[in-house]
Specification:
alpha/beta, six-stranded mixed sheet, globular, 430 residues, eight-stranded mixed sheet
Length: 430
Amino acid sequence: MDEAQADVVIIGGGIVGCATAWYLAQRKVNVALVEKGEIADEQSSRAWGFVRQQGRDPAEMPLMIACNAIWRGLADELDADIEWVQGGNLALANDEARLGRMRDWLSVAKDFGLETRVLSRTEIQTMIPKMTGAYIGGMYTPSDGHAEPRKATVAFAEAARRKGARILTYHTAEGIETTNGRVSAVLTDRGAIRTPVVVNAAGARAMRVARMVGLPLPQLVVRSTVAETTPMARITDSGVWGTGVAFRQKRDGSVYIAGGGQSDYDITLDSFRYFRQFTPNYLKNRRLFRLRVGSDLWSDMAALVPGTEARAHPFASTIGVEPRPNASTARRSLKELAALVPEARDARIRRMWAGLIDTTPDAVPVLGEADEVPGFIFATGFSGHGFAMGPIVGKLLAELIVDGKPSLDIRDMEYRRFKEGRIGKPKNVV
């Protein structure tokens, strides 16, 4: 096999990229995945681990219903322990406004045959007796579940490798060549790989990868903090999303906690490039974001200077770098957990970390081939949904590449929707 050639090159070693490599390798495609660090080094090892159909945009629903079926058999498919638990997903409401949004979303669930229902406080306490905090009701989907993000991502990569995929860690994509307007090679810091197809699964770095072929991608990045507690007695097998804390319990009794959707936003040059597209949704959900100005903006500006190391190697400063967790968010999440579950009052934070989330103006992913550059395929913009959607996205992209058409409709997620103005109205996070 010519090491400098591939039928498909995937940029990004998160769950989307690794799942795509797996499904392509199953189809006997010569695929190479390039990742600037280790597999699952960034977003896919830092996710909450929720796998939910609940609360999705209608455009995502067919994909997530199909993906839920994949997750149920994924441990056997990949021959790996991914800590899959099909314990349901419960979103809590502390007021009538949030409960009303949940009732409104039930029409979406009904349209797709999803068994979601709104529960009263009494029904929730019957289901989870230890959860006695201040909530008035919630929304429950019993077929949802959760899994361990790093384990699942690495399992995809290893399964793909066993099928013949080249998983090239510490290979940084630094450019993409085109010939007559079509993709012809990926330029890495270790040499070029000739290819007619590139999958941009670079997550928080996908905007820079898109600019390598001259495509503006309206995507911004937020930073979310997650913490793990010391072990405690079993609370529930469900993933729980409250207004102040979201949590899921692991096998050893420890609990992953996050701020219930609250994130930090570090201002970058892209903030100004895409200000107009993102302002409506920011204003609708501004209570969830804390704006910060720091090193990210200065790094962006340094990369604009010709002849600098930052310009020549745009991702070098991001390899092996830990995003900054917000310690106050972690402490607040633990306090909120204790208010919700009194037995958690003696728990302590064992460790905390932060992860980057790639977001789009309508919180819907960008999937499929770009009309402007044949052979350039988007798989990004998951807006916090990427871990759960990874398996089905990998499967659909493999179908698109090999068969010419995916088995599910992804037209509402195509890149062209931005040019055509097909972007949804601002919406509250359910």
